[in-house]
Design the sequence.
């Protein structure tokens, strides 16, 4: 992101800096759709919510006062709109489908609970893992396959780097609940990535 | 409260990893997990994968947006600027 300072960013946006707007759209629109998807019933409703969010932002209807980061402010606007639409749609928020089932298949442990099929390291070059394109792709694709509420929680916490408390506030969940969902989402992503990396090495 | 917590088995250890990395495990569980990790290569490998998964998640960047979606939103922005 070229315009780094949040306040400057908003000034540019309200002043009509189209390049800045385009950059922000590319950077945040996919996450806005995901956050909205947590609340509303369909992909197209989620896209409408994300679009309304941008309109609200450029109108400056909900003024940015620099009390939070630009990112958190943007997500908050999106959540407010998504909630309003969810109420109209009479939609209830998805609950974690199986909060207490094991996150790693029981087939991978022996009867005593010890690994019988232990985890396979993702790649040999541990040092280069953050620029390992295969690993980046595997993680991105794995997150995209998560259902709700895991996808919204993992995206906000691990992809966008919000704190657990911020995620809880945005999604109307308790911190404890966010941790459980996060645990399950991360475990699922790890499992998918492990499978993907194993296949690509064959 | 029991003074001696039973040792962890791998199957239960994996369920504690995310909160371990969040720093939100109760001290007793953290100790049990530390002890288990010190003796278990497979669970240490699992933890390392969890760490990598989380670190890589923070670097995946936004998905590619189709150009027509971007153009549609930029058009809205222009319209709004003109109406001002």
Sequence:
């Amino acid at each position: 992101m070229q315009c780094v300072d949040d306040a400057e960013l908003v000034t540019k946006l309200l002043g009509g800096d189209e390049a800045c707007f385009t950059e922000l759209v590319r950077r945040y629109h996919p996450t806005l759709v995901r956050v909205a998807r947590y609340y509303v019933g369909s992909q197209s409703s989620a896209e409408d919510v994300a679009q309304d969010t941008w309109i609200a932002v450029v109108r400056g209807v909900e003024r940015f006062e620099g009390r939070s980061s630009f990112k958190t402010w943007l997500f908050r606007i999106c959540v407010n709109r998504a909630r309003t639409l969810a109420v109209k749609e009479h939609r209830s928020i998805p609950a974690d489908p199986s909060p207490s089932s094991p996150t790693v298949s029981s087939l991978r442990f022996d009867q005593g609970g010890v690994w019988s099929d232990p985890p396979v390291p993702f790649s040999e070059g541990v040092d280069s893992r953050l620029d390992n394109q295969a690993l980046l792709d595997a993680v991105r694709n794995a997150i995209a396959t998560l259902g709700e509420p895991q996808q919204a929680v993992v995206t906000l916490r691990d992809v966008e780097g919000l704190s657990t408390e911020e995620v809880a506030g945005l999604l109307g969940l308790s911190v404890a609940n966010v941790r459980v969902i996060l645990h399950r989402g991360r475990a699922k992503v790890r499992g998918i990535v492990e499978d993907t990396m194993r296949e690509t090495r064959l | 409260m029991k003074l001696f917590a039973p040792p962890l088995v791998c199957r239960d250890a994996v369920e504690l990893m995310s909160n371990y990395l969040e720093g939100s495990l109760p001290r007793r569980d953290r100790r049990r997990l530390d002890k288990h990790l010190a003796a278990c290569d497979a669970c240490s490998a699992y933890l390392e994968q969890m760490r990598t998964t989380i670190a890589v998640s923070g670097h995946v960047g936004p998905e590619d947006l189709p150009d027509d979606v971007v153009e549609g939103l930029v058009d809205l922005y222009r319209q709004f600027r003109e109406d001002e």
